[in-house]
Design goal:
316 residues; alpha+beta; 6-stranded antiparallel beta sheet; 10 helices
Length: 316
């Protein structure tokens, strides 16, 4: 464990997350220690101020576009752990600790607070549950704090936290913005109910293609997402029963990301290229691989004018 931060270090940490406020539990944690060299928190490594500074803009930018109230205070292999910082004047700060898989799209609420996380680790040490394995303190079955074998210790101090998938919706959230997100997460992205309020479709894909853009510069259509290509931006097929068109979508602007099969109301402008740049190389590589084993691949490309989504509103 590294020595804790002094007053200047705490001031630097506060400046890093400005204009948000530094919660008392984070001040206490970083005055105690400024990170760890190894996974001493039952397999989790505590990030130092220096590491937090290096990663902050990385997570706030594409392709993650995370809410700025998240701070990645612990890490482990294929695991990220976030705590919330405080939005001044809101009064709805939540000290819970969330973790997720780096290869998955979900988060689970693992602990009620940093205090309960540290108390869990202290119990594991005092009861000789942990031992040094591969440079980290782990359970005999190699479990970290996210493992099932340590669940009873975790729930000892955080009894309402995550137990299993599907048990409590409050303990599970998607990694990317949805209306189910805590209000503070959405507020930090300047998103509120007005953002997803339906306006009503003003035209159809058929009429939009036939008549061109309206004088206001965008048109509202309603339909469903078909084939989807993702990355820093998205491209997808969008159909409304009158036609199909390609749409490009940058979640940094729309906040919400499209999901295949989901129905949306979208504000769209014509032009600006329908395909994600990863799509053409992917199609070429797949075609070449199929030909090597004697197969052919057909790609169905819908006809219609390309468009760019400037607002995306899910329809329940």
């Amino acid at each position: 464990m590294k020595p804790g931060l002094d007053d200047d270090g705490i001031a630097s940490l506060a400046a890093l997350i400005a204009p948000f406020d530094l919660p008392e539990q984070l001040v206490t944690l970083y005055r105690w220690h400024n990170g760890s060299e190894r996974g001493v928190f039952a397999g989790w490594t505590m990030e130092s101020l220096e590491a937090l500074t290096e990663q902050r803009q990385f997570y706030l930018g594409a392709p993650f576009n995370e809410p700025p109230v998240w701070l990645h205070i612990f890490r482990a292999e294929y695991t990220y752990v976030v705590a919330e910082v405080e939005i001044r004047g809101r009064g709805d700060y939540d000290p819970s600790i969330w973790w997720g898989d780096t290869h998955d799209g979900g988060l689970i609420r693992a602990f009620d607070s940093l205090e309960t996380l540290v108390a869990t680790c202290a119990d594991l040490v005092e009861e000789d549950i942990l031992a040094e394995r591969f440079g980290a303190l782990l359970a005999p079955d190699m479990s970290s704090l996210r493992g099932q074998s340590l669940r009873e210790y975790r729930l000892r101090h955080s009894p309402t936290a995550f137990t299993e998938y599907g048990a409590s919706a409050a303990n599970e959230q998607p990694r990317f913005p949805e209306r189910s997100w805590p209000a503070a997460w959405l507020a930090s992205l300047d998103v509120g109910p007005e953002r997803w309020k339906l306006r009503g479709a003003a035209t159809t894909i058929r009429d939009l293609i036939a008549n061109g853009q309206s004088v206001r510069g965008f048109d509202t259509i309603r339909g469903s997402v078909g084939t989807l290509w993702g990355g820093d931006t998205y491209a997808f097929e969008f159909s409304d029963g009158t036609g199909t068109m390609h749409l490009a979508c940058d979640p940094r602007q729309t906040i919400f990301s499209p999901t295949s099969g989901q129905e949306y109301e979208v504000d769209v402008t014509l032009g600006a290229g329908p395909y994600h740049p990863d799509y053409e190389p992917y199609r070429a590589a797949l075609t070449e691989a199929a030909e090597k084993i004697g197969h052919s691949v057909r790609f169905s490309t819908p006809q219609g004018a390309p468009g760019t989504v400037i607002a995306l509103r899910p329809i329940d």
